[in-house]
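hey m, so remember when u said the tokens were messed up on ur end? i reran from scratch. heres the input so u can diff it against urs
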Amino acid sequence: PSGPSPPALPHCSDISPLLKDPVAFRSLIDLLEDHVRASFPKVDFIVGLDSRGFLIGTPLAQRLGIGFVPVRKKGKLPGATHSISYSLEYGKAAELEIQSDAVEPGQKVVIVDDLLATGGTMCAACELLKRLKAEILECLVIIELKDLKGSEKLNSIPFYSLLQYD
């Protein structure tokens, strides 16, 4: 691989210690479940972004009694897909995909990931879901790096983060 390396993220953006601690991880899912239940009485799917969004999204969907839909890097999903290209903050191109039949028009989704930095990945995922005519209720992350202004790129899509760092 050529080109610049990804920037080093601040230590506060590492969720690995949280994942290793079963009490802390359960508390995280409790907080997210409480937030989604209080904010949205009707959600059809949790949509998780490759790959750490899967770690949060699947237990959250299970708790809520709803399905989980993965948005993956290009070439990882079987069957017909929709894909989108976008630029990463360090100048490298990336592509995301969702299965063409993942959601029906009008179904309500909450998109989850571990971190929002510049917002490129989250915006790309929102565009894929809009193409499928899903109703995006919210983009939900554990950590937001506020100085990078990623949430501003989401425009009118509601956004929620548990922790914010400058």
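this time it looks ok to me. The chain has one domain: 15-164. if urs says something different then somethings off w ur setup not the seq
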